[in-house]
Amino acid sequence: MKYVDEFRDGHAARALAAEIAAVVQPDRQYRLMEFCGGHTHAIARYGLSALLPDNVELIHGPGCPVCVLPIGRLDGAIALTLEHGVTLCTYGDTLRVPGSGRMSLYKARAAGGDVRMVYSVDDALALARAEPQRQVVFFAIGFETTTPPTALALLTARAEGLNNFSVYANHVLTPAAMRHLLASGDGVALDGFIGPSHVSTVIGSDAYADIARDSGKPVVITGFEPLDVLIGVRMLIEQINQGRAEVENQFIRAVTATGNRKARQVVDEVFALRPVFDWRGLGEVAASALAIRPEWSAWDAEVKFGLTTHSVADNKACECGAILQGRKKPQDCKVFATVCTPDNPLGACMVSSEGACAAHYAYGRFVSKEPA
Amino acid sequence: MSIKPGYTRPLDLKHGRVDMTHGSGGRAMAQLIHELFAAEFGNEWLAQGNDQAIVPPPGGRLAVATDGHVVSPLFFPGGDIGSLAVHGTVNDLAMGGATPLYLTVGFILEEGLPLADLARIVRSLAHAAREAGVAVITGDTKVVEQGKGDGVFITTTGIGVVPDGVNLSGHLAQPGDAVLVSGMLGDHGVAILSQREGLAFAADVVSDSAALHTLAAQLIAACPSLRLMRDPTRGGLATTLNEIAVQSGVGIRLDEAAIPVRPVVRAACEFLGLDPLYCANEGKLTAICAAADAPALLAAMRAHPLGQDAAIIGEVIADPRCFVRARTPFGGERLVDWLNGEMLPRIC
User: Fold this and answer.
1) Which residues belong to the signal peptide in this entry (chain A) (predicted)?
2) pTM for the structure as a whole
3) pLDDT for res B1
4) Contacts of A198 in chain B (CB under 8 A)
């Protein structure tokens, strides 16, 4: 694949690994959090951890929108389809996320709910156009990357007078989650961030300036390809060695300092900040999610169907919060690999294969017990 | 079937549709069987018109396999549910070293299915059966109300005979053995996905649906140390190798760079957030043999039209945890785990 294979070249990767090995200071620990699930995926998929020196540790962050979707909001989606009889259009990987009472959208579908997997909000719009008698709700989740398309869909729905289309908005914000991780409780055991890739194309690298300044932790915006990740790691290590804590941009082929203004304008037109939002694994995070503005309430599924979402606490034994802050390891959690498994996940870190616990369940157990 | 037509008008295979009478056991059903199924499948056993087919016992051990086929869409690039229903079952027999002999076919039809579609499927099934050298010796047809089926479901059961001296089984893989595949992976899965409503994308991919019994026979002849063969259908190569690893109590280490995947399949998977190792195949097999015989087995695969892109992709290793892992082109290793739930596209 042209323009993809170039970023997955094994020889270049080994050369980069050698460079990283040459710059690390052996007497210090480098704990780097990759915020995004996309990075976690690349790291697991290409076995990047194995290429890094032992004192460079990659910590999987909360940047998987499916994983951090709180139980209460998922219950809301299930209620929309089972109680309100709507056709719920959703991205594929939300289907198996567990809600209350071991329910999921998969099980809602089996129970007679009309749940459809779509690749894009456009598919939901097309369905609403084609079947005007059907109430179509788009289950909008994701970080800043998926928010502009949802906003555009609302603009389209209003322009076309599509009154049988609405959006169940669950969009969340990356910088707010990073600030929350850095500020909460016992603090973090992190030395730097591999910064978001696609999110930053929208919000720009400047969006992290205060995070780097206030926390004293460097942030390197990094692409999702394996060579990107290795370069980002090298850049972070160099900053840490030099005692710098700046925002740097490795992903210059797509990210600018200011991001995509047009996209943000569209988002601002339709969405407003929620004062607080639940995150699975993190609990309540202030100013971390978006709600549809009141003037757009005709297309807001929460208003339209009088949906009340309840806050459902994560399992008490779940250590996702501490794991996401780098303070604990998956194996430190009492329910890890006992009550909480990939087939029956309790916490955010086990929900998606990209979560820290799921990755450790599948991959970490395997490398840590590798026979000699 | 031998009821002589009391009907006057032949089946309208152009504009007609399946209705409930086609499964009722009455004249309409007899007509459907007579004009379509018997006409297409025609053989001496079916012609007996009894509730059962009576066939002579073949020499050797019997192999029996059954497979239900539910595919959407019914027609896809490179095949349809009819040919698939033959290939799926014939391949299950062939993977055990059996020569396929007979097939039984059960149709569940949904009321409203165009008869033209049914005829096309039945002809395709008959054609695939002839090509695979199997006779459809008995069958069944049921009709379900509209909305209670997905057009057509087809269940086929195959009967074959395993020659003496052929002993292939999933529990026979040993550390040190070589792992091979007969060609490009993921074609069927991606061809189907490219046609799905809501996912439709333009990819020039054709299903690999094919009967593998002649390839299998060549491999058995060429490789005395052949331990097992398996066709990586649902769940793809990753799932099949995990099954084998558990059955044999071994681990498997793949060399990712050696696994053949078409660039267009790789690109489609990249685009959809899928992994070709988990995509279905309907005309590929994976085989395990002693390392010393691997070059001969590879040559035998490549000598067959269905094995031209064959490759040696890995080795069996000792591992009581039965992990399948892959050496990445980066020098790292990743676990190639069981599929968790259904294969779903990733959002990020």
Assistant:
1) none
2) 0.85
3) 47
4) 348
